[in-house]
């Protein structure tokens, strides 16, 4: 059962920039922020971020800061 800390299965959405090879992340809204998980390991860990922290992370990703 979903709680304030764990989104319901239907609440997750895949990144629009996900690759066809399955290199994907999924995000879900939480009352106090955003949840992030690896779409290949849906039973694995969930990263919970405040909305401001998620926005900062997304901005850094979009600049290519974390590109390998």
Labels describing this entry:
68 residues, alpha+beta, 4 strands, globular
Would you mind describing this structure in some detail?
The protein is α+β, with helices and mostly antiparallel strands and 68 residues long. It has a domain at 25-68. 18% of the residues lie in helices and 25% in strands. It has one helix and four strands; from the N terminus they run E-E-E-E-H. It has one helix at 51-62, and strands spanning 13-14, 25-30, 33-38, 47-49. The protein has a four-stranded antiparallel sheet with strand order 1-2-3-4. The longest helix is centred in the last third of the chain and has 12 residues, at 51-62. It is globular. The mean pLDDT is 85.
Give a short synopsis of this structure:
It is built from one helix and four strands; from the N terminus they run ββββα.
Instruction: Write down the Rg.
Output: 12 Å
Mean pLDDT: 85
Class inferred from helices and paired strands? alpha+beta
Largest sheet: 4 strands, antiparallel
Q: Between the first and last Cα atoms, what is the distance in angstroms?
A: 37 Å
* Tally of individual helices: 1
Question: Helix amount, in percent?
Answer: 10-25%
Order of secondary-structure elements = EEEEH
Unreliable stretches (pLDDT < 50, length at least 5) are: none
